[in-house]
Amino acid sequence: MTRPTPETLAHTARRARAAADPTVDVDQAATRTATPAVPAVRPTAATPISGAGSLVRSLEALDVDVVFGIPGGAILPAYDPLYDSTARHILVRHEQGAGHAATGYAQATGKVGVCIATSGPGATNLVTPIADAYMDSVAMVAITGQVASPLIGTDGFQEADIQGITLPITKHNFLVQNAEEIPRVLAEAFHLASSGRPGPVLVDIPKDVLQAQTTFAWPPTLDLPGYRPTLHPHGKQIREAARLMAAARRPVLYVGGGVLKAGAADGLRRLAELTGIPVVTTLMALGAFPDSHQQHLGMPGMHGTVAAVYGLQKADLIVALGARFDDRVTGKLDSFAPDAAVVHADIDPAEIGKNRHVDVPIVGDAKHVIDELIVAFTAERSAGHDTDLGDWWTQLDDLRNRYPLGYDEPVDGTLSPQYVIKRLGEIVGPDAIFVAGVGQHQMWASQFISYEKPYTWLNSGGLGTMGYAVPAAMGAKVGKPDTVVWAVDGDGCFQMTNQELATCALEGIPVKIAVINNGNLGMVRQWQTLFYNERYSNTELGTHKHRIPDFVKLAEALGCVGLRCESADDVDKTIAAAMEINDAPVVIDFVVGKDAMVWPMVAAGTSNDEIMFARGVRPTFDEDDI
Asked: Which of 89, 231, 332, 405 could form a disulfide with 607 if both were Cys (CB 3.0 to 4.6 A apart)?
């Protein structure tokens, strides 16, 4: 029996909610949906071929230009026809690297990222990047070899039920039963991964299916009953949302990564400038709205700006576009934005109302939603329905002036990590792609680099995967070879996946890595400082005290250029030196102080009302504001 997709289950849930909410016309919305499609290429006559050959031909027909992977016994039949393929194969050093590279490629290009692994441990090493892609809604197809069909279920050598293992972290997955299915399954996998709410799809293929003789013909007919993502929103809901926007006195546009997935950045700017409403962009949405724009309050949430956190908390209307009200934004959920009505637009109906009650639910693609909101709001204004946001902007501007993002120079004379990252952004400029690992350096990179354009900021937001940065930067650089790509990594994250720099060196992928080396697992140490009485249990890494590893020597051993910077006077010239090197990967070891902290901060599990601007410093608001 075919397993229902999450979209099918979400559609059922949407119908159940609609039964209790007469404002949702599900049937009408569901009729205006995406239809499955495969690339429009000339049909090919059926030709004899192996299952492995059919797999490779299918990838070529789907316009795949690069795959990241490692061969092994079960997947080996696929590597023989891959040898002659037009698709480039990049041999990574670990399957986790293949998965994150595919994710970085997809995030940078908007195409589907592809990774390949063998059965058993090869496949299970993909679990982390698959989960990462699932949490961040990244279009990725993971192809795994499986033991031969007769061995499935016998605990055969290198057997793992990767389909069962990844069931909760894939949008859909397939176990191919016979070679004739391969073109159809691949076409369906790519369509599922890239349409609706994007996500990872796994295709598991037994070795005997790859070896079997079959015929190849393209294009196949897709068989996806019940899968029709709603793209165009319901007109009634759009009109109601526009009415609320025109009447609100303290509105905020809460923008999530779905706006980038939909290619809706231009429309978002038009909507914001038309309405005059303040904009906050989540960690996954940086670049969707220019950081320098006067209406941008910054990033909300645990380490967001005071103005962005306050704006959401005190809003009387939140218009959420492609965002999911996750805990890092809302803080303690029952105290989040208590006076706000909520318009929630998302292509995934399962997200609407999941965490926060919604007054106007809108199911649809963010680009279409925004375009139709522009039309509807213009009509409201033409009818004389508009509000004056002057008082609201006076409050928000006052907060921006009183509580700007900043940092204190280390009292011990060590190099400030915030200064390093700020200068990196200023010197490299807004056209580069910045990829971050996870931790303090990730937050500083989100705060002190100005993101003016979409798709210039890549990070692991939902899963928070240490080790993401280096392979994701590799994938981004492969997808955008003419764009400068910098990874901002921590000394902890860097040691998890830096072996992929060998891949970069051998494959001619000149990424640049800024290692923010504070000698510790920095974010964990910050929490130990604040919440565990400075008891630093197992967070010192030895990269300061013992210089183990020596990152410059390690970089050189991996075929890269290694540089080191330990003083503020050398920051600019070290970055400039790295920018001059374009024929090899570059690693800079920025040796920074260990006691720097990320501020502002809303402690986990507390209300956004309890935001701290700095240690021991809580913002003060006028009584009228509160």
From this structure: 332
The catalytic residue among 245, 284, 443, 523 is 523
Beta strand 485-490 with 457-458: parallel, antiparallel or unpaired?
unpaired
Cite the DSSP H helix spans in 355-468: 366-382, 390-402, 417-428, 440-448
The answer to whether residue 28 is catalytic is no
Asked if 553 is an active-site residue, the reply is no
Catalytic residue among 7, 95, 180, 181: 95
> Catalytic annotation on 466?
no
Query: What are the b/e assignments for 216-239, b being 16+ CB within 10 Å?
Result: bbbbbebebeebbbbbbbbeebbb
Quote the radius of gyration of the chain (alpha carbons, Å): 25
Beta carbons of 311 and 611 less than 8 angstroms apart? no
CB of 296 within 8 A of CB of 281? yes
Amino acid at 601: M
What's the pTM? 0.92
Per the rule left: phi > 0, alpha: psi between -120 and 50, beta: everything else, 322 is: left
pLDDT tens string 156-212: 999 999 999 999 999 999 999 999 999 999 999 999 999 999 999 999 999 999 999
523 is catalytic: yes
C-alpha count within 13 angstroms, C-beta hemisphere, residue 319: 27
Q: What is the pLDDT of residues 429-466, one digit of tens each?
A: 999 999 999 999 999 999 999 999 999 999 999 999 99
Is 207 marked active-site? yes
CB 515 within 8 A of CB 589: yes
Q: Give the residue from 37, 98, 469, 44 showing the smallest Cα distance to 229.
A: 37
Hey, what amino acid is at 230? T
Whether the per-residue pLDDT at 32 is higher than 50: the answer is no
Task: Please pick, among 163, 171, 181, 207, the residue that the annotation labels catalytic.
Answer: 207
> Cβ contacts of residue 390 below 8 Å, gap of 6+?
none
In sequence order, the β-bridge partners of residue 596 are none
Q: Which of 28, 157, 213, 531 is catalytic?
A: 157
